[in-house]
Amino acid sequence: MQPSLSNPLRIGLRQERVISPQSLIIFGASGDLTHRKLIPALFELFLQRRLPSEFAIIGCARRPWTDDVFKEKMKSKLSDKISDNPKEWEIFSNYLFYEPVDLQERKQVKKLASRLSLIDKKQATHGNKTFYLSVSPNYYASGCKALKEAGLIDDPKKSRIVIEKPFGRDYSSARKLNKIVQSCADESQIFRIDHYLGKETVQNILVLRFANTIFEPIWNRNYISNIQITSSETVGVEDRAGYYESSGALRDMLQNHLTQMLAVTAMEPPGKFDPEAIRNEKAKVLQAAKLADEINPWQCCVRGQYGKGGDITSPLNGYRDENGVNPNSTTETYIAAKVFIDNWRWQGVPFYLRTGKRLPKRLGEIVLTFKDVPVHLFESTIINPAPNQLILRIQPNEGATFKFEVKSPGSGMRSRPVQMDFSYDESFGEPSDEGYVRLLADSMLGDPTLFTRNDEVEAAWKLYTPLIELMENTPWKLPTYKYESGTWGPPEADQLLSRDNIFWRRP
Ligand code: BG6
To answer: In the prediction, which pLDDT does 16 show?
Structure first.
């Protein structure tokens, strides 16, 4: 692809890689993700002067909107951001186009192909296209086939497909989907997106581990006693019951976002900073991961579902009372699992993963707890041992904290835990970009480093296969326990750890 540097707004361009002229075609343009994440991320890239002037965003969905209606819809949803940058929005909106398309209808996809040629000429995008499938996962396979049939993804150098999660519903459907998608396009054209990999602090794990000498020597079973990975949300299912009822926390968060965080935390150092070298290591560690008890998988997993909560002034619905949810639903809104990694580095170190909706805080963190000292010399550490901990804060207040013991001031020899903090905001003075900003830019740049490869996705599904089989065949063995909205999940999840004499960190 030929880069363009002719955008007059490029004055003050950051030291970033340059996105080539191209069209970004978003299927599912009338959906939630488009106005909540994609258009704001693209506008942010525009404000950062990172979009080429030869560019077009073509929204596609079944609704019979026109270009102007699409522009208006997007504008109304983005009013806060636009009010600070009204002139920039006017320029940005020149990039926006809309074409009504049903991906299942050949004729309509053909018509889209003709419209794309016209827009390509008008915007001088050199025939380069990135297709973003933000549609229901049921349409990923047929969507790719339709694009292939219309000849829109024939040139691997000029076309790419970005596919949202969840990629498949289990191991066998993910394999099947991979086969279909790979029969339509080359793996180098396929960008499976997991927006957690776009988060600054998830990428920072790589830098922390591999750009410092002090962490890597202790990043293993000799020094680390356990690792906890948490992603908690305060919101409930909101208006997504249609999708969530058949997804649940395992498919919505655990198999992808949490497992990707696990992969980045546990992978071996790659030989070089190269997309395939990194993805090889991630795939390898995921292939070595297994549930802590594969014979009796219910012993290493707890599912929960939020019940009512809040107070008289702001009561909160239980999951079963939410709009569109089956009143007898057993879908889990919380899941915790214990995983081991069968390799030299991690043998015997438990990884505890948990995620849930309607928990007390919105939070993402990875907590590495180090082993206890071999001999307790000081009384305070005998009574109340506080092991060293490294806490990587994914969100909010992105950064890291290291907890260690120091001597309490005074005449005795008592120790006390203190912490050293690093905060992105304080150190760099600017908030990090949303994950979608980074990932949209990378997909348009053709950089696959932060996208999940076919073997990674399959390994992540394989890991949870025993749980999925239980949920489908003998659900009574893995019941969904109730938890009150606004609490840290069902008490059974605490027992998952307390059996090992470990406790969830209460952030
Ligand atoms: C999405 C899930 O992938 O991630 C949502 O489908 C969830 O259910 C969201 O709310 C959480 O993302 P973040 O970035 O807010 O932690």
So the answer is: 65
What count of Cα atoms within 13 Å lies in the side-chain half-sphere of residue 319?
34
- Output the CA 195–ligand 1 centroid distance in Å: 8
Q: Which CATH class is domain 8-164?
A: alpha beta
- The β-bridge relationship of strands 389-395 and 190-192 is unpaired
Alpha carbons 249 and 319: distance in angstroms, whole number: 13
Q: Closest Cα to atom 6, ligand 1: which residue?
A: 252
- 200 in contact with ligand 1, CB cutoff 6 A: no
Q: Return the structure tokens found at 478.
A: 């893995």
At a CB cut-off of 8 Å and minimum separation 6, what does 10 contact? 49
CATH 3.30.360.10 domain range(s) in the chain: 197-498
Nearest Cα residue to atom 10 of ligand 1: 233
Separation of alpha carbons 147 and 178, rounded Å: 16
Active site annotation includes 126? no
**Looking at ligand 1, which residue's alpha carbon is closest to its atom 5?**
252
Centre of ligand 1 to C-alpha 136, Å, is 16
Residue 459: closest CA among 262, 276, 301: 262
Residues of the chain with CATH 3.40.50.720: 8-164
What does pTM read for this prediction?
0.92
Cβ neighbours around 233 below 10 Å, total: 17
Superfamily of domain 197-498: Dihydrodipicolinate Reductase; domain 2 (3.30.360.10)
Positive or negative: CA dihedral 171, 177, 183, 185: negative
Burial 488-498 (b: 16+ CB within 10 A, else e): bbbeebbebbe
Q: What is the pLDDT of residue 388?
A: 95
Distance CA 429, CA 410 (A): 37
CA 296 from centre of chain: 29
Query: For 207-233, what is each residue's pLDDT tens digit?
Result: 999 999 999 999 999 999 999 999 999
CA 257 to ligand 1: nearest atom: 3
